[in-house]
Predict the structure.
Amino acid sequence: MLRSGRGLYRGAVTHLPLRLTIDSDALASNWRWLAERSGGAACGAAVKADGYGLGAAQVVRCLTDAGCRDFFVATWAEAEAVLPHLGEGALSVLHGVAEEDMGAALASPARPVLNSPAQVRRWKEAAPGRECDVMIDTGIGRLGLSPDEVRDGVLDGLKIDILMSHLASADEDREMNQRQRALFLELTPRVPARRLSLANSAGICLGSDYAFNLTRPGLALYGGIPRREAAGHIRQVVRVEAQVVQRKAIPAGATVGYNATFTASEPTELAILNIGYADGYLRGFSGTGRAKVDETFLPVLGRVSMDLTAISVDAAPSLREGDWVELDYDLPTASTQSGLSQYELLTGLGARFGRKWR
Ligand SMILES: *Cc1c(COP(=O)(O)O)cnc(C)c1O
């Protein structure tokens, strides 16, 4: 039996035509680097969106072994999927509690991250005295209580473990980072909480001033490089491989793919790979992506289509139908090639991959 990352069981005879290889050593090593960069602060892990597409259950198990104890998901459905793998760690649910979440939330050991006065009221009424986390909006303009709501005492009476805020532009050198940190420092003495937390992956790179008691990296765990400080320390975690369905020669003047966006200027050897935008290899890679065989890069020719992508294989004369080919999925490079963010490159990876941990 093979077990896919989505928890489906398939007969061993079913051939999964695409491979995602996930390097648990690299994942653990990235967490250790982020933990070290967090100075004296504990280092958690954002595992929302199924561990950024890798498989949250395996990510949680791997990082628990590495020493991580604080995990973050977006929803209660994600919490339910992660909890059996958690061990002694703690789980926070970033979207907090809507009315229809209360049943699940009260039955769960996970903590809601309360984001609005209505969520705070709901929690105080249904679970008085029970521990929660809280998000303050110090400028991102997304989830969280406003500074005025905090000053007005909306949070009074809550039992708070993590009091957090989220940086809007930590991946850039902007004054906004200092402003958000200063506002966080101004507001937090007003709110009794066990731990303070501000930094995501990029925030950890900004230095120990941003670490407080707990950091919350996501992207960099999975091989993303949020800022230059992480380059050379963060290792690639995910490798994407596809198979050659057909190899063919086309003459000068022939075109490749939908809308004939590539025209061969000379006789060209093509390999047609079984990967496309339905797998998350989006059309941004059209004419810009590349595959890698040994140390040779093979450019994508023409449009990426739903289930197929053509590459030039003039430089790989021995590549045959049925061979596996690695796509260049080094996240910063692939982000430049495709115009997609490193986050989108991870979370878009589709359901047709056999996810293989090693
Ligand atoms: C997603 C998320 C993180 C992790 O951010 P990265 O940029 O992936 O490191 C941390 N905190 C919150 C509140 C988040 O939503």
